Every structure is written in structure tokens, then in C-alpha cells.
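pipeline: protein-struct stage 2 | run 1193 | Retinoid isomerohydrolase
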Amino acid sequence: PFRVEHPAGGYKKLFETVEELSSPVTAHVTGWIPTWLRGSLLRCGPGLFEVGAEPFYHLFDGQALLHKFDFKEGHVTYHRRFVRTDAYVRAMTEKRIVITEFGTYAYPDPCKNIFSRFFSYFKGVEVTDNALVNVYPVGEDYYACTETNFITKINPDTLETIKQVDLCKYVSVNGATAHPHIENDGTVYNIGNCFGKNFSLAYNIIRIPPLQADKEDPMNKSEVVVQFPCSDRFKPSYVHSFGLTSSYIVFVETPVKINLLKFLSSWSLWGANYMDCFESNETMGVWLHVAEKKKGRLLNIKYRTSAFNLFHHINTYEDNGFLIVDLCTWKGFEFVYNYLYLANLRANWDEVKRQAEKAPQPEARRYVLPLNIDKADTGKNLVPLPFATATATLRSDETIWLEPEVIFSGPRHAFEFPQINYKKYAGKPYTYTYGLGLNHFVPDRLCKLNVKTKETWVWQEPDSYPSEPIFVSHPDALEEDDGVVLSIVISPGTGPKPAYLLILNAKDMSEVARAEVEVNIPVTFHGLFKRA
């Protein structure tokens, strides 16, 4: 599966502006939609890549578009609406980019005179609320989010925007990831940077309880459960996701750092954006931290390993005094997001390949973290052999050096955007994960991986560009992989219909059905299936 090329450049359609729909459109189904599949696939991504003549520059800058595929009695409809964030509404009103995005600086209002512009320099940075990354439930509500302190409440049926919510008003964090963990009772856990004790930086784990009988908004009851220390008191690491089991929280601190002095100094004086505030610590490697979930107690064990970027945890579970931590890593300390500018992603295939050759290389890995440490074992590998090929060596400075077991590796072929049978297997021993295969950063296949045997199953078609696969379990499932996998695919060159929703049998990744639509669908990052 590694030989596929994309000289026609159809992937460029993933980064093209589209219009929202005024009402849902009917999709044309081939194959048979399982009768038990009832509900909505909700996904987020950028849908507006320029405002008038002003372009957005980075993959994470385009304005948030919320997508929904509805499944009912074997019929499928598709709907999409732009999220009415401040960033979007103000851009539409002023016909220019008003709020600075991840990789695009918003110039000051050209209509203001130099005097009023000078004073607006001292207002500080207006943080974006462009909720283009994910959508998740809190109690009975649904929120679209990015990684700042702003999340946006949306109506999952109509896709209308309800209101902007500022997390800072509820809990002590400067932002939160787009990858909360949601337990089966509805409890939400997330992590965000914060200011800890005596001016130094830290990371807070926040917990939002499930909806109670009083029907009060659970957000009002959010609390910090544990604080992880920062390796550098002035420079927090970029955090995109974390690991959770029934008893433990795992936080992986990578060498991609946010330079807060750059972040807090008035950007408008030097035309900066978020990307300008990242730097790499070339010597720290990676630090892993573990806390007890219920007591909110930090384990005083210093896990260390060599440098990688991390965006997505696959799964985490406990096994006889060890934590198994499965990750989608990118080797090295250079920030992978440096390669995700739209100019790179829209380049011709040969240029796309040339860029990806220089980038950090992807690898899915399993780390094994021993929880019970005996100083007498200094110099020894603490992971018993039959268990895993990963090692954990206690060093004389009392740090534990980790080496991973590789669970997937292909040159410039990433197993990314991992999903599992989350409801039944999150935080527990599991066998299968489903991922989006990136070929030199171009998403061109869907992949199922057996994390125990490393066996893979692949769905791939020429000039077809899928999205993150979402696993939906069969209601009467007996096995972990009883169910289907859903993905939005664009196939710009291959027929009259530019995009479709693909349904695969999760057992062998064979096609069950597809539901084609008459419109292009740009890239989406994350989402969920909401059962009817």
C-alpha cells in the first residue's frame, strides 16, 4: 500500500473554500446502509480559506465549518453550516480578517487613524474562537472547539451556533485541548496550560461532572483535579491530547515549547501569530508524567525518552503494575506544524514529497511505564520480557529511560487520527485501532491496526482522500470490532460526485456502502457519531 502516488493533485480540493448549505441535501446511496445505523456523524474543519482578497496561511486558520451526515432508515442526508464564532462574524461584517489565527496575522483596522491604532496595541491579544478542530458533548450540550479558552455551543440537529463560552470563567486554565476524555457516565476530563505556584507554568487537568438531576449546566461545576509541573517554568509544552485510565492520568510533555514572552508581548507591534511563538527545546527529549486520577496525586516517577512530537494518544491502559501508553509520534523535536502551511499542502505532488522528506518521521509506538519502582533495580530493565518489547531502565539519577515497541512504521506514511471502540475499550486493554493513513501528509487511505500482532487492513482507492475514521459499534456487538467505520472521502477526479460518506465493515475494512453528495467537502479533523 506504500507505493501510491498523487500526480494529479486532487488533494488540493481539501483546502478549497465552500459555501454552507441552507438546508440538508439528500445523499445518493450505493450499497446498503445497516438498518441499525441511526444518528448523526458530526465533524469540524476549515471551510473558508480566505476573506475577500486576504488569504489564511495555515491548515488551522480557515474558518470553522460544521458538517453533519444523518442516517435514518437507510437514507442519508448531508448538512453544513459555518460556526458563527466572533472570528467568523467579524470577518463577514468587516470583509477582512479581523482576528489573528494560528498562522495568519490580522492586520489592524485600515479605517482607523494612527492615533486609535496606537491605543489598540495595548488592549492585548484578542484570542481566536475559531472552533475548527473537534466537537464534543458536555452534559446534554454539544460544543465545537479549537485549543484556546473559547468553546462554542452548537445545536447538533440544526448546526446553529448557540453561544460562545469562555473556559477561563469556570476554571483556572489558559486554554484546553480539543481532545477531552469523556467517560461513560458523561464526566469530561481535559488538560490545559495554566499559571501555577510562584509565577511558574503548569498544566491543569480539569474535570466537568456529568449532568445531575438538578439539570444545572455541568460547566458551573468544573474543577481542577491535578496539576502537572512544567519542565521549564517559563515555557509550557504544546499539549494536544493526554491519556486516561480508570485510575491514572498520563501527560506526555514534548519538546515543542510555547515562548510565553513572545506570546504575551504585543503581537500587533511586530505582526506575529501563534505559530511564531513556538520553539523547540533541543535537549530535553520527552518527559512523561503520571497522576492518580481519584486522589489527584502526582506519582513521583520521572519517565524520560528521546524527542518526538505528539498530537494523538491512541489508548492507555493498566496491566499488572504497568501502564501501557500507545501514541502516534513524529520523531525529533522540530514542530510538525511547520509543514502544515497551506502553500505546502497545496503544492504539486513532487514538491509535497520533497517537503515531507525533511519533516519529522511518523511512527506509532507503545511505551510501557512501570508504576512500582525499587531502587535496588538501578541499571535494570523493569519491563518483564514476555510482556512487551518496550523497555524501561532505572538510571542512577532515579529517572526511568523508556524505549518503545514500534506498532506501526512506514517511511513518510503516518498512522494518524487514531480512533478505537472508545465506549467499551477506552482506558482498557484493547486490540484494534483505526487510523487515517497520511502519505507525505496527504490523507490517502484508511487503516485498521491490530496493536498486538501489528496486522493491518487497508481501504484505499486512487485519487480518493478520506478523513479520520470513526468507529460505530453494532448495538448487539459481541466483539471489539463488531461495527462499521465512517469516513468522509473526496474523490475530485473520479466521477460526477465530488465527495461521499464511506461506510466500511470494521472487521475487514471492506466497503458496505457509500452516500454520495453533489458538493465538495473540504478537510475535516475530528468529530463524533451521535446515536439517535
